[in-house]
Amino acid sequence: MDPARTPLGQMLLEEITPVVMVLSTPSVEEACLKNGFSFLQMLTPFCSFNNIDVPVRTASDQPYRIHKFKLRLFYGSHVKKPDLKVAKEQLNQVITDSGEKVFSELCLDASEIDHETACSEDRDTPSWFQFFNKELVRMASFSDHEAFDHPVACLLAVSSKDEHPMSRFVDLFNTNKLPSLLKDGAMDPKILKHYLLVNDNQDGAADRASKILTEMRSTFGASDCSLLSINSSLDAPIKHQDNPWASQACDASPNQDLGCFLNIDDIDEIKDIMQNLSSKHIIPNMEQKIRVLNQQVSATRKGFKNQIKNLWWRKGKEDVVDSLNGPTYNFNSIESQIRVLGDYAFMLRDYELALSNYRLISTDYKIDKAWKRYAGVQEMMGLTYFMLDQSRKEAEYCMENAFNTYLKLGLLGQQNATRCGLWWIEMLKARELYKEAATVYFRICGEDILHSAVMLEQASYCYLLSKPSMSRKYGFHLVLSGEQYKKCDQIKHAIRTYRSALFVFKGTTWSYINDHVHFHIGQWYASLGMYHVAVKHMTEILACSHQSKTTQELFLGDFLQVVEKTGRTFEVTKLQLPVINISSLKVIFEDHRTFGSPSAVNTKENLWHSLEEDMIPSFTAAKSNWLELQSKLILKKHTQSNVCVTGEAVKVNIEFINPLQITIPVSGVTLICKHSTSTDELTSDEKESSVTTDNEVDHFRDMSSYNSSFLVSEVDFSLRGGETTTVQLSVTPKEVGTLEILGVRWKLSGTIAGFHNFELNHPKKSIVKGRRKAKQSPNEKFKFMVIKSIPKLQGSVHSLPGKAYAGDLRQLMLDLRNPSEFPVKNLKMKISHPRFLIIGNQENVKLEFPACLTKKIDSVQSDAHASPNVMSETVFSFPVDTSIQGETPLLWPLWFRAAVPGDISLYISIYYEIEDISSVIRYRTLRLHYNVQVLPSLDVSFQISPSRLRIQDFLVRLDVVNKTSSESFQVYQLSSIGHHWEISLLQPPDTIFPSQTLMAGQAISCFFTLKNSRRSSTSEYNMSTIPVGSDVLLVPQCSQDLVYNMNNVPLVNFHYYERLQQKVSHEDLGDLNTVDFVLISRPLNSSINPGLSDPPHVMSHHTCHLSTASTGPISWLVDGPQTLHHDFSASFCEINLKMHLYNSSDATAFVCIDTIDFDGSGGHMNSANTVQSATPDNQAGWHDVTPATELKVTPNAPETQPGKALSLDSVSPYIWSGSSSTNINLESMSSAEVPLQICVFSPGTYDLSNYVLNWKLPSQGLGASDETRQHSGKCQGYKYHLTVLQST
Amino acid sequence: MIVCVAVVGHQNNPLYIQSFTEADDALKLHHIVHCSLDVVDERVNNPKKSGPMLNETFLGLLYPIENYKVYGYLTNTKVKFILVTTDIDVKDADVRNFFRRFHAAYVDAVSNPFHVPGKKITSRTFAERVSTIVKSFGFSSAA
Predict the structure, then answer these.
(1) Closest chain A C-alpha to B113 CA, distance in angstroms
(2) Is residue A1150 included in any domain, yes or no?
(3) Of A666, A852, A1192, B55, which residue has the fewest beta carbons closer than 10 angstroms?
(4) Which residues of B touch A513 (CB under 8 A)?
């Protein structure tokens, strides 16, 4: 790469060029001012020569050619070190101006903050940096330690108008007026002079000018004088096509056309003069000087002898001078001359020569400790190396060395250090070592904050440009620089840097940094009064849950302050405070489905579907097969969007989350909706109340104004730190058309309005009620077809308890109202849990509860007949003439019974049709949902065992445990329902319930005998399906007419469902031998739990399918004496027994009775079949009745174990003396008697259980339902103790 | 003294950043850690330097900034551990040892089935363990 083409090379070729000092008289200036510029300005454009061809010959004999050359013109008064203060102010001005300029550009596109474009622009280093750097370099110019700023020539200009022009020329170069550099000996005052006579053609007197010229030529020498005529264009100002002065236009007044009085000839003349000056005077002069100096230098310094001499001489000097600047060198000193030689050579681009001289002088300065000069020379060496494109390392080393040396000098070297640094940076940049350049920038940052800000910013760009680009460092340095800008009140620059930094941090999760940047940009914009932009940035940081509480308060406080300053409520899209949980969004609307309560809404749709399946005709049709279903859905998609009804609210549930730790007030939460009167979406006459584009804030403001076509609800709330609230918003359309819900808006702290569009790309959105169409576009879900008002039933169930004890039986009232004037008809109803809730009859309304349950009104027997039929239907249809309209509600009784403990959800769906046929919706359903918590109350269990006294008699043990914690109950009545069962108490009730109450936690047992009355009427039982039962009152003093009738309406129905329910869990062991019990209990009023709003009146506990014949269809009874006196001295004793057998099955059974005699090994106890006899002897606490443990579980039955105390060993054996095996065929439902006999040889107590009963049923001819039934079995004899005593 | 430790995920998202100074300099440390990622990237993507130590997880001194020294460590899953310290002369062995223990703690923390990969580490146990490791920094090799 050609170093001259690099930016640094270009800069050096422009900046390190011969300086021409211009001295002019006021009249010259005057003449030039006519054109709008000074004399110097007039000449400047013609000082750079791009296609000249000048042969140059310096120290070597070989000439070379220069094609480009440039002169720098300075007025004599300017040839001095710039005043630091002025320069600084100037620099600050530069920064401020550029700040304004860049910022205003930035603001143009700030209206639409588009970071992407902003970033790409910023990637290019802002141009004003170049200018700024140039100014910085200029600050270090005209230093006495370097020669390239020293004027090479002097241009003296006198106007032809001046009087005594000759003396003016002399005066101009008066030593008093000369710059200090020439005066105090830093440079040779004997410099090349060129005399220029300026003639203003407007003033005429061209002959005077030529006269003066000849005079000049004779005085100063012919070649050194020239005449310049200007302002030749006499009248008309000339417009120059490409104005050579255009680049200087900033200094001049803009309205004046620069150079308007200069015609082409004038310009050509200026050009010629300048070119002449440079190629004929300055360059040869410099060449000559180089040659002279080179000779001198080689005479004094070159060669071995000179070097030794020089070394010795310097060493001797060392002790003398020890000032900071080192010794002062005037222009005569060899050191200065070498330096001048070097600089001249550099300017004439003889870099080899320059380098050798710089090297030479560098060591001298170092030895002399002339640090500034040393640094200057090092700097030049670095640049020379660079221009030679040799030894990059050397170049960098020199630059670093120079830079460090300047830095060591402190304030004195400050400007030079900066300049050196900048050159160094340019050098590094030219070699694409951006990272290193950035570190140099970092080192340039001095005390001056503003400068360091600019440097840091430049450093940041270097990081960005480095490969690979270090964007994080870029961001960091931008932030640092922004901080510095802020410190010097360059807010606009600060904003600019921070905004550039944003793109680094955007999209990352480095939230602390992000917050910092956004917050400060916001603050700074606010301080500039640009509140809109400020708010935009501030909103970014609102959801700063990771920050500390104080920071959150600060952020929110500042934000509110800024918003307040905007002076109106501010609309912000996607305000992050509070956070909206979009996945929680639920749209609730009622088309043909209406809801009685919010909880009904939350129920899953398919649950309702299954419930309503039977009632709604179209649904069943649609589900016939999947092909049809698909096509219908597609059709529906076009024709039928979501439907809602005029006047009925569409509700939206939204969850708001406060991510902060501080409380935020939120008010005015409303839905943003759009309503168009046309149902067709394509028509253009939409009457929009707001518009979808969220940028257009105005539209949202319109929202607040009253809108006629729909009503929206407004909610206010306040969110504490970290709180989450679900808000229900509603919109009620008032006109037919299309309604679309677009989003939600709210106000934070009353000043900032935020709105959130319900974005269309949330796949998770759950529209609870919307039918789930496969590819429904999401915004369809927010679109509703508003149809005209149709009646909507309102329903509720009165006095349904929220909490009830198990068994609680109540009468409830369903209240249906139709507020509209249109009647509805064809009502149907279905209930999800008929076990808990059944539908009563219209007549029941009049009934008084619980009195209606008692036998008194038993006369309505027809009810009982009818009800099982009703129950078989799952859908209850209201009478045909039922129609609800206007104010009069329809009341319909319902029966409620808390069947089992637990939390029960009851779903009721009511179907009705609308008489107005024209409506889109023909029918609607009202869905009601209630939750009931059922608490455990009484735990009832039964145990049935066959009585040993009479065949077909059973002993029933009832165990009741009060499971409640505080409640007391009165156990009122036990009823048996089954096939002709009769039940009676064994003991009078007084003995069972002395206190008549069952306290909390108390358990009691009582015994009943159960008699099968069917025995006598075997043939009749099939004739009636009505279960008849018998009732036992457990409360003594009650009269018989307060007995609850099990055949009364709700009880019998509930019993039906209980039977259904319990059938599932219990195996049906034969329908003939099962018995159902219903226990009626009543709570005692004295101890009503206040937690229950409505005390229960009657509670019923149903236990069904208790089997009496658990061992099989055969029951038997051994009949004989219990105690016998016999004189064993006479003979052994023969005892006759009788066995009664009964077949309770519906088929003929074959029974075989085998008696087993005592065998010696196992005693008289049968050990072969221990299953039956080893039944655990559970005395108490048996709650559930299982078939496996039945027969033998009668230890505490009336036959109170007489032989318990007897040792089995002492028992003498007995023998069966009758036939050892008896076979009989037992007809269905018949009994038989088998005689048995035993022989006893000694007195004692005998257990007569040593027999086995085998039975068999024919397996043919039985229904499939009887598959599970036992067909044969073997029964061990039960214990029958016989005591034989020795008679006296 | 260790000023700050940080865990940065493979997408350069901060997973855990904890400063151990009293001063409120969280922002500065965030910046330092964030910038150090540039150097980590550079080290990783520059095959010249990382050639001989291909499997080396320890990245060494990333860069000195102001009065801090920043050390880096890169796991095989491209999770970066950053250590910012004010100590002037830090033994390399100490830092390696620190990172090894820190890595172990991190592995345990992310092995928690309730930890969501790529999300910030909120485990209190991890924080406690890290602070113990930080406190014992520099003593281990001396002892």
Answers:
(1) 23
(2) yes
(3) B55
(4) 27, 30-31, 34
CB atoms A512 and B26 under 8 Å: yes
Test A512 with B30 for CB contact under 8 angstroms.
yes
Place of tokens 């060029």: A17
The domain of A1168 spans 1114-1286
Q: Which residues of A touch B31 (CB under 8 A)?
A: 476, 479, 513
**A927 and A947 co-located in one domain:** no
State the pLDDT at residue B104. Answer: 92
pLDDT interval class at A1038 (50, 70, 90): low
Asked if B38 and A471 come within 8 Å (Cβ–Cβ), the reply is yes
> Is B45 in Cβ contact with A472 (below 8 Å)?
no
Highest mean pLDDT among A89-93, A98-102, A122-126, A171-175: A89-93
**Helix or strand run (H / E) with residue A214:** helix A206-220
Q: What is the pLDDT of residues A159-203, one digit of tens each?
A: 887 778 788 887 777 766 677 767 666 677 778 888 888 887 777
The percent of residues in chain A predicted with pLDDT above 70, rounded, is: 73
The 10s digit of each residue's pLDDT in A112-169 is: 444 444 444 444 566 777 777 877 777 777 777 777 778 888 888 888 877 787 888 8
**Which is higher by pLDDT, A907 or A307?**
A907
In A1044-1148, DSSP assigns E strands to 1074-1083, 1098-1107, 1114-1119, 1123-1126, 1133-1143
Q: Which of B64, B74, B83, B65 is nearest to B40 (CA)?
A: B74
The structure's pTM equals 0.64
Contact A468 B45 (CB under 8 A): yes
Interhelix angle A371-388/A7-15, rounded to 10 degrees, is 120
What's the N-to-C CA distance of chain A in angstroms? 148
Domains of chain B: 2-142 (3.30.450.70)
- Where a domain ends, among A286, A302, A320? A286
Measured between beta carbons, the chain B residues lying within 8 angstroms of A479 are 31
Give the residue on A whose Cα is nearest the Cα of B24: A548
Yes or no: say if A893 and A840 are a contact pair by the CB < 8 Å rule.
yes
Asked if the Cβ–Cβ distance from A476 to B34 is below 8 Å, we say yes
Give the Cα separation of A576 and A57 in Å (integer).
75
